[in-house]
Amino acid sequence: MRDNISTVKNNHAIGIGLVIADSFFFSLMTLFVRLSGDLPTMQKCFFRNAIAAVVAVITLLRTDEKFHIKKGSMPGLLMRSICGGLGMICNFYAIDRIGLADANILNKMSPFFAIIASIFVLKEIPKKADWIAVIIAFAGSIFIIKPSFNVVSLYSLAGLLGGLGAGIAYTYVRKLGQHGERGPVIVAFFSIFTCCLCLPFMIADFHPMTWQQWLFLILAGFAAAGGQFTVTAAYKFAPAKNISVFDYSQVIFASIWGVAFFGEIPDMYSIIGYVIVIGCAVFRWLYLMKTED
């Protein structure tokens, strides 16, 4: 019994470490995407995923099973890729148009969307505390979006939709992990699928790039690959409900990049929103830890 408890705690610790690492990598990705300048969203998404796909394919080639996909994984891989791909497009669109910290925190609404998605995907029934956290977190997001009849609110709404796509996608990552599907397979399938999704749009509206833009998009791709591998591994070690709160460290990293590189200081409403959303995530995590003990 003690060995089982010790194993669970060790898995949670590993999961937490991987989630924080994933947050750092993804915050770097958003920084490099912004630094790549005035390029179409689809073009940025394509190159970001092309690099990640190459890394994933090389990783698979070095395994014994190569590109083998487990029986029954295909529906989950498709849903993870469709939702994750559309979510990424919305997120990249927002990154170029609102503050870096705002774009990141709206994308980090994904755990709350994952709570809802888990009902349908994993047949997990949320607790009362989960529902309270979801409602308050969405109220907090309103402070960040600042609903009004202007284009900035639409950009922020796109960021929130990015969080929706990511939340559903991560739920399918968890389901695939439970099914025993390998992390590199999930990353490779998603990256190649998203490249195919973006390719026609990129060809139709391709913008020539400077060497600096090439460099930043390549770096964004490598950072994204690091983030994808770590987040995929993290949710295999522990349920998202137990470790996803640490994903909010991405907002801290993004805030540092925003101030250091772009001089972005979040306004008071955004800060209130950050406190509410992150506070809800922390409260929910503490509650879950207490009730499971």
Key terms:
transmembrane; 0% strand; globular; membrane; EamA_dom; DMT family transporter; 293 residues; 12 helices; transmembrane helix
Report on this structure:
It comes from Candidatus Weimeria bifida. Residues 14-145, 157-280 form the EamA domain. The protein is globular, with a radius of gyration of 18 Å. The two termini are 14 Å apart. 81% of the residues lie in helices and 0% in strands. By secondary structure, the chain is mostly helical. Helix 1 packs antiparallel against helix 9, helix 2 packs across helix 9 (211-237) and helix 4 (100-107) crosses helix 7 (151-179). The longest helix has 34 residues, at 2-35. It has one domain (2-292). It has helices at 2-35, 41-61, 74-95, 100-107, 110-121, 128-145, 151-179, 183-204, 211-237, 240-243, 249-262, 268-292.
Largest sheet: none
Strand content: under 5%
Number of strands: 0
* Helix-and-strand structural type: mainly alpha
Radius of gyration: 18 Å
**Distance between the amino and carboxyl termini:** 14 Å
Question: What's the helical proportion of residues?
Answer: over 70%
How many helices? The count is 12
User: What count of domains describes the coordinates?
Assistant: 1
Q: What is the element string, with H for helices and E for strands?
A: HHHHHHHHHHHH
Principal-axis shape equals globular
Poorly predicted segments = none
Mean pLDDT: 87
Membrane topology: Multi-pass membrane protein
InterPro entries: EamA_dom, EmrE-like
Pfam families: EamA
Subcellular location: Membrane
